[in-house]
Structure to design on (836 residues):
């Protein structure tokens, strides 16, 4: 079977619902598809449900499925992926929590679960903790700042378990909880002990932290506790090269978004952020396009280009910025299509999940997807709005089904059976 | 995320196949959709496979899936649900069997597995047994009459198991079987002992039952045994309020059908049967419509209206009665749509399974479904026959996928992932 290269271009948050501001059209319906009209008309199109219909995907779970790992049975919970999104490199066995910077009384009664939510000195506070916290029972602890009051906390050491309860009481006016082992084994008991020592250590360190003195001067509530929830133990995902059914030796992910980069690294991608690519709407997208073509020329099997901007515009509720970001992403797609040998490549353009600008968050609406491959049965659409996607011949693909389809068109997947 | 109310209206057995009597049209193709044409034209439509394509759903398994519980991995077998359909309130741990009223010889050889099938005094026989049977080894036994010769038998007590074999030999001319433990534990041994004692006790009680004397007078075979099959141990389903990923506090199910009411109660619905609602084709459906609007106004999150009549007409093989019942169900839907704020509600209309009038039983044909939500991408159909459903943009949803979709449009379901 002839082996083709695979290029996947994601416009993060691509799909949408009708927008009142746009006369009940979707952003995609305002998009100028002319740069990719020829490529699309030579493609099959359809819908993709990253997890399954009716499940709202995270960026992490969607990317696992996009690259062939069923997230329903292979997801350690949000703790580890929050940490990855905040820049952590996790190893299998690490236990990570989501956490809140919070304000508590001297008796550890929660006064504000979010310490005022706006915490300009959050990064410095976290750095202060990381410099001073040290090890606990031979376990290394790292705190990562995400956004506002949100942090992730990673525990790394032998014999840890994620079968421990939250310290976050999930309400105010009550004491911070002791973490309890949820399994009758030494790993759970040890982890709960370490977590409780962490809670105490954090309170001691922050009590004397000069950053809090300055907060109090301007009337802001002190940050003097970290509340933990959602323990998850990092799993190991098989790298592409370890997946016997696949023939993918070299894969590269071009992205500027920490969570996406983290997930891709776990799957065995080399991860690249070209200069000028920021993950925001000011990103130099053409640097990603040029990088993709460069890796194609260097003989990479799978080249993934992730463009965040359309999702950022959606979270901001800005349909015009979304139209603009999609059009800029299509120029990336067009540049790549113009600079590869179309007889030698499978190209897919899609979203990783739908983020309607009217909702400003991920929804379970299936995402439009186009698949170009030499000799594929085409639908002949020269646009890819939600409507063409719903009429497309790919139908409604779920989870890992899309990845398998791409791998098959590229001649890179084993037969199941004789 | 804005939270909307959810209203689900089921016409039981809705879908169909072409009917020779109707010139190879389906009942839905004869239905006047005008009362709901506007609502449908603002909806997305498609097909739903309650379990998965190729599996014939029961009303119980279909309703579990409709409300987000995967029945394939969470179904204790038909025994418990037959009992629920016959009016039993089951508790987790109860073991229930399907049973037949049967005729046996003095040596317990099966003469008629159905005791003539038509048993006018079945209800009295069952009452007689329940009054006299007493406890067996501390286990309470209850017999419920379903239809004709069919009963369900519930064993309630500590330490029971469903790992026991049938007493029904599934053929005639052979002896009633001893139930055997199918697991090597005390619960299975104890349950088999109790079941065998039950068989004996029933034979003793029915031997002297005056009802049998009267049956024999008119030449009908005596009912002198109960044959048991399909042991199932009742499980506990999480209530809506216990499902952390959902935000559904108050849910009400409006139905007059025992099995549907039982399943809904297990899932945490308040269950209501308005006066005049019978579950038959003579049911006062508008009393259900008024009740639905009343619960909407009282702030319920999820309102379920179940209308049995179309299924009853299908089991009778009467396509005209089915058309009529569907039209009456659409008036319920129309009344609800006219009396709620359409900016505040997700409305779904569908069947719980297909019951073709030519088959007179449930089939695996997918059911038509319509989903209205503010801002949903619409298909613009003003009718919902099998044909529009097959062309609809929802595609073909399976099992719990529909529930997740409704919950997502209502802004009531957590994201899976970060």
């Amino acid at each position: 079977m002839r082996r083709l290269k695979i290029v996947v271009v994601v416009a993060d948050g691509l799909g949408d619902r009708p927008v009142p501001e746009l006369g009940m059209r979707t952003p995609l319906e305002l998009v100028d598809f002319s740069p990719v009209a020829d490529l699309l008309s030579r493609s099959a199109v359809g819908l993709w449900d990253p997890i399954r219909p009716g499940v709202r995907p995270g960026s992490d779970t969607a990317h696992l499925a996009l690259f062939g790992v069923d997230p329903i049975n292979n997801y350690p919970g949000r703790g580890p992926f929050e940490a990855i999104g905040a820049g952590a490199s996790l190893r299998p066995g690490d236990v990570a929590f989501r956490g809140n910077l919070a304000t508590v009384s001297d008796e550890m009664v929660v006064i504000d679960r979010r310490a005022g939510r706006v915490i300009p000195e959050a990064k410095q506070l976290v750095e202060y903790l990381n410099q001073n916290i040290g090890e606990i029972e031979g376990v290394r602890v790292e705190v990562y700042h995400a956004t506002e009051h949100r942090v992730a906390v990673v525990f790394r050491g032998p014999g840890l378990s994620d079968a421990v309860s939250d310290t976050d009481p999930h309400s105010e006016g009550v004491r911070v909880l002791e973490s309890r082992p949820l399994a009758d084994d030494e790993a759970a008991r040890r982890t709960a002990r370490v977590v409780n020592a962490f809670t105490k250590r954090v309170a001691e360190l922050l009590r004397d932290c000069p950053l809090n003195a300055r907060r109090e001067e301007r009337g802001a509530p002190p940050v003097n506790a970290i509340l933990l929830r959602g323990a998850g133990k990092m799993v190991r995902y098989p790298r592409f090269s370890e997946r016997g059914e696949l023939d993918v030796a070299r894969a590269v992910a071009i992205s500027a978004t920490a969570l996406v980069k983290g997930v891709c690294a776990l799957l065995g991608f080399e991860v690249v952020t070209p200069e000028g690519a920021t993950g925001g709407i000011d990103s130099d997208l053409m640097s990603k396009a040029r990088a993709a073509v460069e890796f194609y020329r260097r003989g990479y099997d799978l080249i993934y280009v992730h463009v965040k901007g359309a999702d950022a515009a959606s979270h901001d509720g800005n349909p015009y910025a979304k139209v603009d970001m999609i059009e800029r992403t299509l120029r990336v797609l067009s540049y790549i299509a113009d600079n590869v040998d179309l007889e030698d490549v499978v190209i897919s353009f899609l979203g990783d999940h739908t983020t309607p600008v009217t909702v400003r968050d991920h929804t379970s609406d299936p995402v439009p997807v186009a698949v170009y491959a030499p000799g594929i049965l085409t639908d002949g659409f020269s646009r890819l709005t939600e409507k063409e996607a719903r009429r497309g011949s790919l139908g409604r693909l779920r989870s890992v089904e899309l990845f398998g389809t791409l791998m098959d068109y590229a001649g890179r997947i084993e037969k199941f059976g004789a």
